[in-house]
Design goal:
Blueprint (H helix, E strand, L loop, with lengths): L13 H14 L12 H8 L3 H13 L3 E4 L3 E4 L11 H15 L4 H15 L7
Antiparallel strand pairs: 1-2
Length: about 130
């Protein structure tokens, strides 16, 4: 089951972190159609956030057509985002790059900034970048 990790210092709204992490899990194939998301209560217990925040995130995912709430049963994945499976060769290459960046003394935020800049350069005009 998906476990959300909330970074209170990120500057990103908590509900958006839940939305982004759910989308990432969909893109990596960690969540598939029919899978059940954790209940709002489970997310609240694991992250100590307001239940309304979880519900707001789930409503946003539902608005985007990615999940479906079934009264009394829970919230279920409707469609996948496909793309890069969690065990793809590209993931291995990226993991090697991240390891080398860390060994070279690069800080996490610097590596993320560099990676984002390269993505922006190579995916200009794409909405999801």
């Amino acid at each position: 089951m998906l476990e959300y990790r909330i970074d209170r210092r990120s500057g990103i709204a908590t509900y958006l972190q839940i939305v982004q992490q759910t989308k990432q899990a969909l893109r990596l194939g960690l969540l598939e159609p029919g899978d059940k998301l954790p209940t709002a209560r489970e997310v609240v217990e694991a992250t100590a956030i307001n239940p309304n925040t979880v519900l707001k995130a789930y409503r946003e995912l539902e608005r985007e057509g990615l999940v479906e709430a079934k009264r009394g049963l829970g919230t279920f994945i409707r469609k996948s985002l496909g793309g890069a499976p969690a065990e793809s060769p590209l993931r291995t290459e990226l993991a090697d790059w991240a390891r080398r960046a860390r060994e070279a003394g690069m800080e996490r935020d610097d590596a993320a900034a560099l990676f984002s800049a390269v993505l922006e350069e190579h995916f200009k005009g794409d909405e999801d970048v």
